[in-house]
């Protein structure tokens, strides 16, 4: 994965994020890795989080000196405040929070257990909410802070066999709408990005044993190509 991009042409500096520090959950690979690469290419520092130290450390090392890795489980909401304090103590206050951590369970509704549904919601929604609260004091210190949520096509479209994921991504849209109206008067922008199908390891795992599903997905993409997590 490339960690360097040429500056945007035509509007020099228009997309510069120099002076920003990003806390990115789910940043150890796939879409998270591409997001981190873009931030760094734009001049920001990035603190990646994930639940596995080896993956987080490897991702940070691959991205270079502007990236650092820290282990954190977003579902451990009781530790959100102490984690935020640790981030500030070790790296300084953040100015951008990206709620990107996620997981899914693909099962028909009669096979999906309540605990599985709850685990998906806890990762995407409850954990993200806890981090917004925990990092709010740091965000308010910056002149141009921002909170981002990784939404999905599932935020708007009905997709079978992923009830927990669909509910969680729809909830992201609700959080974005509510938090944006509440926090914008305090100077914090809140947005959600809903990507289409991205060529990540998670996508390949989900479709490698289901060629019919892969064919159906590709037939619905006008360009006939998957999106790429990497910038460029």
What features would you describe in this structure?
The protein is α/β, with parallel strands linked by helices and 232 residues long. The chain has one domain (21-195): Rossmann fold, CATH 3.40.50. Helices cover 42% and strands 13% of the residues. The protein has seven helices and six strands. It has helices at 31-41, 53-63, 80-91, 114-139, 163-183, 201-207, 211-219; strands spanning 21-25, 45-50, 67-71, 96-99, 146-150, 189-193. Strands 3-2-1-4-5-6 form a six-stranded parallel sheet, with helices on both faces. α3 crosses α4 and α4 runs parallel beside α5 (163-183). The chain is globular, with a radius of gyration of 18 Å. It starts with 20 loop residues before the first strand and ends in a 13-residue tail after the last helix. The relative contact order is 0.14. The model is unreliable at 1-12 (pLDDT under 50).
Summarize the structure.
This protein is α/β, with parallel strands linked by helices and 232 residues long. It is 42% helix and 13% strand.
Secondary structure: elements and pairs:
Layout: E1 21-25, H1 31-41, E2 45-50, H2 53-63, E3 67-71, H3 80-91, E4 96-99, H4 114-139, E5 146-150, H5 163-183, E6 189-193, H6 201-207, H7 211-219
Parallel strand pairs: 1-2, 1-4, 2-3, 4-5, 5-6
Helix pairs in contact: 3-4, 4-5
């Amino acid at each position: 994965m490339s960690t360097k991009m040429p500056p945007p042409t035509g509007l020099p500096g228009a997309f510069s994020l120099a002076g920003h520090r990003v806390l990115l959950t789910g940043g150890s690979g796939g879409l998270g890795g591409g997001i981190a690469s873009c931030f760094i290419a734009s001049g920001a520092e990035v603190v990646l989080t994930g639940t596995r130290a080896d993956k987080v450390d490897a991702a940070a090392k691959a991205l270079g000196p502007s990236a650092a890795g820290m282990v954190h489980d977003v579902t451990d909401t009781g530790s959100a405040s102490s984690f935020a304090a640790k981030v500030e103590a070790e790296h300084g206050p953040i100015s951008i929070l990206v709620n990107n951590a996620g997981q899914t369970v693909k099962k028909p509704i009669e096979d999906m257990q309540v605990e599985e549904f709850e685990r998906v919601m806890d990762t995407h929604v409850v954990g993200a909410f806890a981090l917004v609260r925990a990092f709010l004091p740091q965000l308010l210190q910056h002149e141009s802070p921002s909170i981002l949520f990784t939404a999905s096509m599932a935020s708007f479209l009905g997709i079978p066999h992923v009830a927990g994921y669909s509910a969680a991504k729809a909830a992201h849209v609700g959080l974005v709408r509510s938090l944006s109206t509440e926090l914008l008067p305090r100077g914090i922008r809140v947005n959600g990005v809903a990507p289409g199908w991205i060529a990540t390891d998670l996508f390949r795992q989900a479709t490698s044993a289901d060629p019919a599903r892969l064919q159906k997905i590709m037939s619905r993409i006008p360009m006939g190509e998957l999106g790429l997590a990497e910038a460029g």
